[in-house]
Amino acid sequence: MFYREAGDFKTSYREDSQTFPIKFDRLRYYAVLVVAFGIVPLFINDYWANAVAVPFLIYAIAAIGLNILVGYAGQVSLGTGGFMAVGAYAVYKLMTAFPDVNIFFHVIIAGFITAAVGVIFGLPSLRIKGFYLAVATLAAQFFLVWLFNKVPWFYNYSASGQINAPERTVFGVFVTGAQTSAMAKYMFCLVMLTLVALVARNLTRGTVGRKWMAIRDMDIAAEIIGVNPLTTKLSAFAVSSFFIGIAGALFFAVYLGAAEVGEAFGIQKSFLILFMVIIGGLGSIFGSFAGAAFLVLLPVFLKNVLVGTLGWPTDLAAHIELMIVGGLIVAFLIAEPHGLAQLWRVAKEKLRLWPFPH
Amino acid sequence: MKDMNEGYVTADGRQIGGVIMEMKNITLRFGGVVAIKDISFDIREGEIRAIIGPNGAGKSSMLNVISGFYIPTEGEVFYKGIKRGPMKPYQVARLGIARTFQNIALFDGMSVLDNIMTGRLTHMKKGLMSQAGWWWTGAAAEEHENREKVEKIIDFLEIQNIRKTPVGRLPYGLKKRVELARALAAEPKILLLDEPMAGMNVEEKEDMSRFILDVNDEFGTTIVLIEHDMGVVMDLSDRVVVMDYGKKIGDGTPDEVRSNQDVIDAYLGVAHD
Ligand SMILES: Nc1ncnc2c1ncn2[C@@H]1O[C@H](COP(=O)(O)OP(=O)(O)OP(=O)(O)O)[C@@H](O)[C@H]1O
Ligand SMILES: [Mg+2]
Q1: pTM reported for the whole predicted model
Q2: Would residue A87 be called left, alpha or beta, if left means φ above 0 and alpha means ψ between -120 and 50 degrees?
Q3: Looking at CA atoms only, how far is residue A6 from chain B in angstroms?
Q4: What is the enclosing helix (H) or strand (E) of A340?
Q5: CATH (one of 3.40.50.2300, 3.40.50.620, 3.40.50.300, 3.30.450.180) for B97-187
Q6: ω into residue B166 within 30 of 0, thus cis?
Q7: Residue B226 Cα: closest atom of ligand 1
Q8: pLDDT in tens for each of the 273 residues of chain B?
Q9: In contact, A60 and A190? CB cutoff 8 Å
């Protein structure tokens, strides 16, 4: 079919402000939903769930969260790992303290707790910007990891210092613990991601999103047209941390099952998610998906091709992965700050005009 | 001079009201630099008030005092008869004062439409939670109501065809127009324009003059205007304040100002671009 807006006239502002204004985009979006909810669950197995699908879903949530802060509101953060840890420990404490409450609510509440913590660590953003803010959030990262290691209350005084997710069900199906099926993990995270993406989309297409972008693009002008920089920046930290907290909760409870804070939520996590946002595209929800997919798939792909097919040693493949990611970060930062999402947009633009480019 | 509190009708039939804003003995210092020295003047409801003067005279600084961006070192600002305490700029915006900047201050990463929509922020009340719900919570309805108002302004300023263009890609003259649109979207009581025609060609200047007159005429918006082009100032404004080295050296109708000897000496005599 042709990718066109011709003959697809908008007769109301409601239609014009649709998420996917072009009919073809809308159809493809529904197709993705049908595949994700209806078809993938039928075929998913443990390998695909653990190596690709579940990490992708969870990282996409975290990337959307970080993108709100960095891409939309223009505030730097290197504390993502620490905030994911807050979500993980919050959900752990909730699961063990209130075993009768459904885990779905625990995950959401863990998000709210992380939002509150995010707001506290967002306070410096009212006075400092850019590099200095990055350093402040880096301090938050190290502080939070240290805190969860240091205070035994957080890991319920367990001898190992680890946290272990108890078994919990949703509608009678296990979603955490050893008995959880690949499909249950996948579906639970998919539902969460869908909700997160919807909320993120709604926030970014309205007043709140415009306030964030106004602060990002020119904070002085934003203030003069009536944007309160204090509440706007803190709301970005809150919403961003809310999503990142949910991602952390899922990463621990559903994906890992057991976690040690420094290992699961260290500074590498902060960078990984920042790279997803940069490669995927700053200020784009679709970009968050693209970045997460790319960085989850890349190692799997390299491992299968280089190690599996060509028989190269594993550590060499790992080094090549680092080089590729590093190169891409530099390339995107210099040439295309809006990432894969922009490349996709440009391709669509070309397609829309094709075959008459003028 | 006309009576302080009574309104009057201009030669071209516009209604000018009483004093809406009054600046009393404003002084503004930046460290050692005195940008404004003990200046008083008033702004009447519905009038076009020009501020003129050579480069560095302190005009933009004065506009920043009016918009609440600078807090004067000395002196008082009265708005609708009430003394205005120290306020944050975003609080002043909520009083109905909007402005454009000498160096365009648009949000470059956003489309023309989104930029203008930001002008409606002070009228949009839905909070974070209802934004998250969108259709269910009425945020969408609020968005569309405000979008309709913005579309009227887009029609009014004749920028329909660039609605979806990212602002960063626009030429200078159009950027100025979008900035005016954003300020108008706020439906301000007072509109502050800092050199809205700087760097424009004759045709663009004519367009802009027409828009300014239409805004004033159709919406009754009070306009404070800084402009270097004397022809434009004399054509557009009801009253003019003349500044030089931070001091007020003239205040009155264009004709009065034109025949004021101090002004002629200090300003009109000086070659100017
Ligand atoms: N933020 C500031 N800090 C220090 N000095 C300033 C500041 N803003 C303005 N000034 C000084 O105040 C004086 C008046 O500046 P202002 O920008 O108000 O002049 P202007 O009349 O708008 O000039 P122009 O026609 O060039 O725009 C100048 O000497 C300027 O250097
Ligand atoms: Mg100036």
Answers
A1: 0.89
A2: alpha
A3: 16
A4: helix A339-353
A5: 3.40.50.300
A6: no
A7: 22
A8: 445 567 788 777 788 888 999 999 999 999 889 999 999 999 999 999 999 998 899 999 999 999 888 999 999 999 998 998 888 889 989 999 999 998 889 999 899 999 999 999 999 988 899 889 888 888 999 999 999 999 999 999 999 999 899 998 899 889 999 999 999 999 999 999 999 998 888 888 999 999 999 999 988 999 999 998 888 888 899 999 999 999 999 899 988 888 888 888 776 555 444
A9: no
Q: Whose CA is nearest to atom 6 of ligand 1?
A: B30
As annotated, the residues of chain B forming the CATH 3.40.50.300 domain(s) are 1-94+188-273, 97-187
Provide residues with CB under 6 Å of ligand 1.
B 30, 33, 35, 53, 55-61, 102
C-alpha dist (Å) from residue A325 to A87, A283, B92: 27, 20, 47
Q: What angle do CA A83, A84, A88 make, to 5 degrees?
A: 120
Name the E strands within B120-268. Answer: 190-194, 222-226, 239-244, 247-252
Cβ contacts of A10 within 8 Å, gap of 6 or more: A16, A21
